[in-house]
Amino acid sequence: MDKYLIEGGPRLAGTVRASGAKNSALKLMAAAVMAEDACLIHNVPDIMDVRIMMDVLAYIGMGVTFSGGDLEITPATAPRLEAPYHLVQKMRAAVEVLGPLIARHGRARVAMPGGCNIGARQVDMHMKGLALMGARMGVSHGYIEAEADGLSGTHLYLDFASMGATENIMMAAVLADGVTVVENAAKEPEIADLAAFLSGMGARIEGAGTSTIEIEGSRTLSGVEHTVIGDRIEVGTLLLAAAITRGEVLVEGADPGHLEIFIEKMREAGCEMRADGRGISVSVPREVTGVEISTLPYPGFPTDLQPQTLAVLATAQGTSFITENIFDNRFMVVDELNRLGASIKTNDHHAIVRGVPRLSGAPVSATDLRAGAALVLAGLSAEGTTEVYDIGHIDRGYERFEEKLASLGAKIERVPSEA
Ligand code: EPU
C-alpha cells in the first residue's frame, strides 16, 4: 500500500469542497438493483468503496459507467443473484444488496461479512427483518441464502438503530405487498437520502430520518436521477484538520444541519464555528480545550468522527473524556497516536486524553479508514516528519484527501508502495 509523508506545522487556511457521502452513495447503488430502467447518480465520490460496489453490481450483471462523479447503472438482463466472498470481504456494505435482490428477484446469496477492524459487526437484525417480511433466511457454507415468493409488509422493532439493517429492510419493503413499519429505525441523513432516491423510483416512504419509517409497497420501480448529499464525515474531518493546525478553513458542500452536535462540541472546545448557505467554517482564536464526548447513533456525536477528534484533543489544553458506544474496537488508533507523543489511556470503551503541547512526527500505520484520517491529522500538527503507512484504508473513503489538504497549505505527499 502507498504511504503519506507529512511535514507537520503549516496552519491550514482557505476553502475546500466536500465530496458526496460515501455512506449514502453505496446504498443508492444497492437500491439501483431494483430499478426497471437506468439510474443516474450525481456527486458520487471516486473512492475505493464505490469502486468495489461497482464490481458487486457488475458481478450481478448490471451495466455500470462512472465518469466525473456521475454514475449510470443499467439493469441486468440475466442477473446473477449473488454478492461473492471476494467482494464482501473487501467491503461489508456489499451486504446491502441482500434486501434489493430478494425484493426484486425473489432470491439472493450474499457472503456473510466477517470480522472487521473496528469490531464485531453483526447482520442478525438485517436477517430478522427480512424473515419477518416472509423471506426464508439461512446461512450455509459462509453465505446468507434467502428466498421468497413475494415479501409482505410487517411491523418491526429494531433492537438497535442500525443503519445497515434499517436500509436493507427499507429497500426490501418498497417492493413488498402492503405496509411495513420500522420502529427504532436509524435516523442518519444518509437514510433520508436513500428514501429520497427510492421515492424518485416511485416508492412511497414516510418518516425516513425519524425513528419510525412507514413504507407502502409498490409493484415496480423505475429508474431515477439523483444527487448524493455531501459527506458530513469528510466535512467534519476537514474541519478537524483545520482545528489541529489552529487554522481557518471553510468547507463547502456541507449541510450544517447534519453536524449540529459536532459543531457544538467544537465550539465547546474553543473553536469559532460559523455555518451558513456556503458551508461550515472553523477558526481557532486561542487554544483548543479538553471536552467530554460520547458517540451515539445520529443525531448524537458520530463514531466516524471519534478517532479524528481524539487526535485534535491530544493537543488540547486540559483533559478530555471520550466514550465510544457504537463499536467495540474503535480505539485502535490510540497506540499509534501515543507513538506520536500523545498521552491517551483507554479502559474498555472509555478514553482519557491528557493534552500535550505538541506531537512529534513518527512512522505510524492506518488500521482502518477513520483511524488513518486521524493519523494524517496528527501528522499535520506534529513537529517533524510523520509517515502514515497502509493508506489504502484512507483511499476507501476519502476522495483526493491529500490534494484537498495540500490545497489548504498542508505539506503532504503520497509515496507509491513500490518507491
Ligand atoms: N449491529 C448488530 N446487528 C445488526 C446490525 C448492526 O448487532 O444486524 C451492531 C453492529 O455490530 C455495530 C452497531 O450495531 O456495533 C452499528 O452498526 P450499524 O448497522 O449501524 O452500522 P453499519 O450500517 O454497519 C454504518 C456505516 C459506518 C458507521 C455506522 C454507524 C456504512 C457503509 N457504514 O455501518 O461507517 O460507523 O453505520 O454510524 O454506511 C465509516 O464510514 O467509517 C463507517 C464505519
Outline the structure in words:
It contains 14 helices and 24 strands. It has 419 residues and is of the alpha/beta class. Strand 20 (343-347) and strand 21 (350-354) form a beta hairpin. Helix 1 packs parallel to helix 7 and helix 10 (306-313) packs parallel to helix 12. 52% of the residues are buried. Uridine-diphosphate-2(N-acetylglucosaminyl) butyric acid binds next to helix 1, helix 5, helix 6 and helix 12. Uridine-diphosphate-2(N-acetylglucosaminyl) butyric acid is lined by residues 23, 26, 93, 120-126, 160, 162-165, 186, 303-304, 326-327, 369-370, 397.
Keywords for this structure?
419 residues, alpha/beta, four-stranded mixed β-sheet, 14 helices, 31% helix, elongated, binds uridine-diphosphate-2(N-acetylglucosaminyl) butyric acid
Q: What percent of residues are in strands?
A: 25-35%
Mean pLDDT: 96
Extract low-pLDDT stretches: none
Number of helices: 14
